[in-house]
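Thread: "does anyone have the structure for this chain?"

Original post by V.I.:
We have the sequence but no experimental structure in hand. Need at least a predicted one for the grant figures.
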Amino acid sequence: MLLELDEVYAGYEGGDVLKGVNLGVEEGSITCIVGPNGAGKSTILRVVSGLLKPRRGSVRFKGAEIGGASPRRILSTGIVQVAQSHSLFPDINVRENVRMGGYVVNDPRLIEERLEHVEELFPIVRERAKDKAGSLSGGQQRLVEFARSLMLDPQLILLDEPSMGLDPRTRKHVFETVKVMHGTGRSILIVEQNVRAGLEIATQGIVMESGKVRLVGTKQEILDNPQVANLYLGGTLSLG
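Reply from O.Q.:
Generated one for you, tokens below.
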């Protein structure tokens, strides 16, 4: 396993959102976490990225404990997150936004090499290089955010609701781009509200409910499970 969470409890002042989460992300996989609102999906990403410290439990990346480490240290291990909300600097041009993704890299030559590679994967970075990021559509901004995340050459990319607010055609393009990033050798952990679309690109699916992992399986096993449909129609998953 590339990433392992073992009996993780974490939350906010109101109490624990995660209540003994156990999950693993295999190296080379696209693992998609689905579940109803409030299940704890995005909280998992906050714990892994260092934005939220677990109250109990273990978070291991490549076998090393990272639970409670600072976001900067976690970045340095090879984990990067693309947030749910758009995070580009709107008054700075597209190329500079992407270049800023390598802000912890102290080698200017390496930054330019990675920028060239990113522009090959994401033509929009070159095509709209001098345009202000704020002039891009929501879908275009999401692609630039993906491009920026690769500037640190991560092993694991965390994606929080990447299709939120996008029309069906743009959403399809975004998911195709996720597969492109996966094809470069990255492992991906994605939280997605659009269950079918998220699982369709995944190699592994995880269903959460009420702060716990309820089901783990291949995308088809998850999609074919009648309890999953029941959950999204207002029911609950059986623990049996």
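V.I.: this helps a lot. The radius of gyration is 18 Å.
O.Q.: and The longest strand covers residues 15-25.
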